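Example record

One chain of 498 residues, shown exactly as stored in the release files.
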Amino acid sequence: MRRTIHVKLYLRNNNLTGRIPASIGNLTSLVELHLSYNILEGQVPDPVTSLIHLKQLGFSVNSLSGEFPSSLFNLSSLELISLSYNNFSGNLRPDLGNFFPNLQRLYLAQNSFTGSIPSSLANASKLLQLDFPENNFTGSIPVSFGNLEHLFWLNIWSNHLGYGEFDDLKFLDSLANCSNLEYLLIGVNQFGDIGNWSHLIALDFSFNNFSGIIPPTIGNCLSLGDFHMQGNSLHGTIPDIGALMDLQFLDLSLNNLSGPIPHFMENLTSLQYLNLSFNDLEGQVPVTGPFSNVNVLVISGNPKLCGGIQDLHLHPCVAQEPKKMQSNLTTLQELHLSYCNNIAGQIPDSISPLKKLREIGVGVNRLPGEFPASLSDIANMFPNLQRLHLAQNHFTGSIPSSLANATKMMQLDIPQNNFTGTVPICFSDQVNLLWPNVLGKSLENGAPDDLNFIDHLTNCSNLQFLHIGLNQFGGTLPNSIVNLSVWRHSSQLHSEPV
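Predicted structure tokens for this chain:
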């Protein structure tokens, strides 16, 4: 009888449970082993060390635990190691990189690894991608990473790296040798100084401790498509970035930037997302280019800004005649006016031509009265609407059942208002709904059948979050609550797990 030799084993996304069997080590001819997107638990078994021909190992998106598997150190042929989205913990061995001379991709995202990132990874000279976001790594980035001449992706987002010191980013000087580097994601850490960059496509330095000005040399990064600096302590004016014609996503929000919005930004015609909110910008908002026809435009939290197109509802500039300004925002997909200087009054009917809106955000203001009349026929007015944020205003009355006609709605966020009455049962028609939030203050009357609407939410197959606290619901939790969809967290900034 002819013996079957297994070279590739793909068991991704099969709802497998339990532990990885030790007998897997008998498949000594395996070259590729993929068990990702299952519910496997426990540690990686020691017999895996017998798979000496293995080139690809994909164990992402399970519930595996323990330290970095020691059974892999004998597998010098490995080109891919994917352990993202598990429960691995502990420090990585300082000599980790010495064991994998052929390694090209190392994915460790969203685990609980601690300690420093091993400088020995620079010895894995074939590395293309290092993806370590959402762990608990500390210390600095090894300067030796500058020797990885093939590296094009480095993602260390959301760790505890850096010391808040002036030399935290000295490793960037060494990365200048990585001529293929295109994606550098170092946001949400503790870095404390800014350096110079070039030839990059994406830069994410968000939510660190950066201070000082945005280096003017950023204007020389002509290939830059994504630039995120939000959530720091940067001051000064916006530097000249008028030559960055490929820039599509720019987020400078939550800083201390001042001065006017430079007119050269009107020439950045590739912009699809522009967020300048919560700074100290002043003067007239431009009205052409991305400021009139951008998919996402966020400038709230800058009380000294004025003018702009009518749809921004800013006060007129002192030097300009109050007049009706024509809007070209018919392609606008997201409208954010939350935290916008305590806006009062009604949501104007003039938003009705914005048929392509996917998201409306007017939370944390002082909007009064019953559910806005301008949103009453929401399904016909905004057929593409996916997210509606009305939180923390002064709305009263009942939640209209017409909201259920917005069949593309994914997130309904209306907490901390003064709505009364019941939660509409017809929300069950919204099969795409994943986040209904009706937290506080006065829904229902303490009656035994208050929670009957939960029975109908079982039709919402994508439901992941349900927030109904701080109300007046009575009765008992229905048995149907166990049939609601189970939440699973995922991130946007990571490299696709394997």
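Notes: The CA atoms of residues 358 and 385 lie 4 Å apart.
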